[in-house]
Amino acid sequence: MRTHALSIVLTLLAAEQALAEDMKMPVNASQIKWEPAPPVLPKGAEIAVLAGDPSKDGHYVVRLKMPTGYKIPAHHHPTAEMVTVISGKFHLGMGDKLDVKKGVRLTAGGYAEAPAGMNHYAWATGPTVVQVHGQGPFTVTYVNPADDPSKK
Question: Are 141 and 76 in contact (CB under 8 A)?
């Protein structure tokens, strides 16, 4: 019986160690490393990858920092996109064309989800940071191909 109990304890300790090795170190906002957003997003934004690799299959978490007036034209993704506003004023609308008269304004703590394939657009009316998470690979398909900044 003691041998069985010892075996269970050792297995649990090994599992805990493996999980600890996979865990990223916690970071405060001041420690986040920002870089220019990828070319598939309009210029002016910065991105920070917090977890995973958005270009690969699997879970990812990123933050997007946008200046006042930043706009993302109508687009969709092959997987669901979940967005939480960290700071600022973020506007999100559903449809085939960006329309600042429509949409919902979200402030710090606000949350939105765009299902896979749903056309949506966004804009910021102040310096804004959002956290986006989902299942990769993260890709953007613009409703109007002329809006795709990576093609310019």
Answer: yes
